[in-house]
Amino acid sequence: MSFYDYTVKGRAGEDVSLSDYKGKVLLVVNTATGCGFTPQYEGLQKLYDTYKDKGFEVLDFPCNQFANQAPGTNEEIQSFCTLNYGTTFSRFAKIDVNGKNASDLYKFLKKQKGSVLGSSIKWNFTKFLIDREGNVVKRFAPADTPESIESDIAALL
Q1: Rounded CA gap, 27 and 150, in Å?
Q2: What is the enclosing helix (H) or strand (E) of 58?
Q3: 3-state secondary structure (DSSP) of residue 26
Q4: In angstroms, how far apart are the furthest CA atoms of the chain?
Q5: pLDDT score, position 67
Q6: Which residues make beta-bridge pairs with 27?
Q7: What kind of fold does domain 3-156 have according to CATH?
Q8: C-alpha to C-alpha distance for 69 and 77, rounded to whole angstroms
Q9: What does the pLDDT look like over 40-58, one tens digit per residue?
């Protein structure tokens, strides 16, 4: 299977085919609203604003698996991100990224790009960079800020 073969749930519970993003450079991020890395939303939005017209998208997957730092409903998370960080990029329904209930998409991403410490997602704001052909080209740690990975994104655009 390729990245584009997966279907995920949108914020309202609707099916969203990742084939809708064919031909774009994507940054897939598992996020949380109550994390020390939450201010990265600002940098993610800046990247999105800078590159969206060149075919770049941020795909935000809230996850409550790390210290219960994304406890709200999908609507509450959307409101928080919009009001506090002005986010306008794509946000999906809350998911699990590890364990027996991990989303199929995240199983795929982890298989494609494990980390030095293994394939598990270690914390919120782990990022995966996908090229225009749907290849997972790089994985970034939570501490890698959006600003620090901008050159990797620009190189694919």
Answers
A1: 11
A2: strand 56-62
A3: strand
A4: 38
A5: 87
A6: 58, 129
A7: Glutaredoxin (3.40.30)
A8: 11
A9: 999 999 999 999 999 999 9
81 catalytic per annotation: no
21-41 tens-digit pLDDT: 999 999 999 999 999 899 999
Residue 120 pLDDT class (50, 70, 90 cuts): confident
The tokens describing 90, both together, are 């794509």
Cβ neighbour number for residue 60 with a 10 Å cutoff:
22
E strand or H helix that includes residue 96: none
From the list 35, 58, 81, 93, the catalytic residue is 35
Domain boundaries, the chain: 3-156
Contact 76, 46 (CB under 8 A): no
Q: How far apart are CA 114 and CA 135, in angstroms?
A: 14
